Amino acid sequence: MDLLTNILGAIATIILAFVVGMSYGGIVRKITARVHNRLGPPWYQNFIDAYKLFGKTTAIHHGWMQIMGPAFLMVSSVVTLMFVPVLNNGGWFTNLNFKGDLIFLLYLMVFGPLGMALGAGQTGNPNSAIGVTRGLSQMVGFEIPWVMALVALMIQFNTTTITGLMDVQQMSGTWLMFSSPFAFIAAVLAMLGMFRYSPFDIVGAPTELASGPVSENGGKFLFTMMSSGSIFSFVKLTLYVDLFMGGADNLIILLIKTFSIYMIPVLYGIVSPRYRTEQAIRFFWGWPLFFGILAILYAAIF
Amino acid sequence: MINDKNSQKIVDIIQNWARKHSIWVLAYGTGCGAIEIPPTMTSRYDAERLGVRGAATPRQADVLLVTGYLTTKTLKRVIRVYEQMQDPKFVIGFGSCTINGGMYYDSYNTIKLLDKYLPVDVYINGCMPRPEAVLAGFGKLQEIIAEGRANGAQKYKDNLEWYKANQKKIIPSLLTTDYNW
Ligand code: SF4
Q1: How much distance in Å is there from the Cα of B157 to the middle of ligand 1?
Q2: Mean of the pLDDT values across residues A95-119?
């Protein structure tokens, strides 16, 4: 019985993440269009796109790793989703947390992109190879402030679980955003790179790189990537809300909080041009790194 | 019940609706007409509100937009691009040059009628067509997709020999690979 409820809860969580992630994607397209003074597509455009991609035939075969790439992405998104508590009290959403899951999460979150990198490598398209090298370099850039922010939290509150950090916030009544502000700043700056909106869209630059790692993938491959991307962005947003904004008691609050934090990379992205690779890395190793070090010092000293 | 003709019809209607509202365009900028694509996509005419969006590579695209005259050299590339696209795929011939050669009707190195080499679903005429005309062309394409009449790709498969023979006449060195659709 317990297993059954867990499985049903997992399915519900995945469906929620998919729907919310896809709708956010559509809303972002709408917002971007409004900023450009356009009408823009309807908010459900991403669902139509996904359905159409799913309905396309796929006669591309470059080898097994290419097929495994999108699968890796999907698996990594879904497994990460299982370790991030959606609501404060759990509700009927499955959460497989254990001691030290925050550290596990750090590894898990790069698993998908690495699998995708292998898959993109096998397609043999030079654009994919350039996209992969760019993506990995950028990852080296933003992972460092991101890890530093999390390590600062772990030192400050003596816990390595997400639920532990959520309990801290509930007990003290203040969000970690305020009780460890430097970690929050470092994490938000790292988030700009994590979401890959401009100016950090150097991986999938459509005209420059012909969309980079995904350039040889059409139809159902693209559908898998699109849906796993949507799920993953929901996961990341929920993780930020859990860690820094006190989690959410119900779905409405969750949506409000995730959406408001999502607007940081989106709005920053709409008005920015694209960085070159070395500029992006220099950005992350500048102020975000500084705030990361500050956060660790703050955590160690106070 | 799944394989029953009527339920297949319903699935087709839903899929055609989705295809119609999500058109990813690969603009193959061959001729001068390509300059009309940016205004069509940006603020003034905003094709994205119809679900028309640029695709980066042939693998992801639904529509091949051949914008203008095709020299014998570019025809070879366009054919390769078209054959890399995934079904269902459509072709839009853009500008007079793809219909009858336009102002290059007597040129020695451009093709005159695109339909002889690739199956064109919709033509947009004009030299060059304004963004309004381009949007009208997309509207027409949406119409025929919804009715299920946009079967250029099927025509290409059925008459492959004829198309290949025509292509070979222009490009003697065309290597025909085996395609497993
Ligand atoms: S139809 Fe006119 S505008 Fe278009 S490619 Fe030909 S000559 Fe240029």
Answers
A1: 29
A2: 83
Which pLDDT score, from 0 to 100, does residue B2 have? 58
What are the sequence ranges of the domains in chain A?
2-301
Q: What is the pLDDT of residues B70-81, one digit of tens each?
A: 888 888 888 888
Measure A101 CA to nearest chain B CA, in Å.
37
d(CA A163, CA B82): 52
The ipTM (two decimal places) reads 0.86
Q: How far apart are CA B32 and CA B35, in angstroms?
A: 6
> What's the CA-to-centroid distance between B33 and ligand 1, angstroms?
6
Q: State whether A52 and B56 contact (CB < 8 Å).
A: no
A40 touches chain B (CB under 8 A): yes
Alpha-carbon distance B13 to A300, whole Å?
Answer: 63
Q: pLDDT of A244-274, one tens digit each?
A: 888 788 889 889 999 999 999 999 988 888 8
Contacts of A58 in chain B (CB under 8 A): 86
What is the tens place of the pLDDT at every residue in A39-60? Answer: 889 999 999 999 998 888 887 7
CA A30 to chain CA centroid, nearest Å: 20
Is B95 near ligand 1, meaning CB less than 6 Å away? yes
Residue with tokens 């969006």: B53
- B69, B71, B104: residue to mutate for ligand 1 pocket, most atoms within 8 A of CB: B69
* Chain B residues closer than 8 Å to A41 by CB: 48-49, 51, 53
Q: What six digits make up the tokens of A251?
A: 């779905």
What is the distance between the alpha carbons of residues B181 and B172, in angstroms, rounded to a whole number? Answer: 24
Does ligand 1 come within 6 angstroms of the Cβ of B133? no
Looking at the domain that runs over B14-170, which CATH code has it been given? 3.40.50.12280
Share of chain A above pLDDT 90, in %: 23
Facing residues of B64 across strands?
A: B26, B91
Which of B17, B41, B86 to probe the A interface (max A CBs under 10 A)?
B86
Residue A126 CB neighbours (<10 A) = 11
pLDDT band at B181 (very low <50, low <70, confident <90, very high): very low
> B103 near B131, Cβ under 8 Å?
no
Which ligand 1 atom minimizes the distance to the CA of B30? 5
Task: Tell me the whole-structure pTM to 2 decimals.
Answer: 0.89
- β-strand partners of B63: B25, B90
Three-state DSSP state, B124? strand
Domain boundaries, chain B: 14-170
- Asked if A87 and A254 touch (Cβ cutoff 8 Å), the reply is yes
Q: Inter-chain contact B43–A37, Cβ cutoff 8 Å?
A: yes
Whole-number Å distance between alpha carbons of B34 and A8: 51
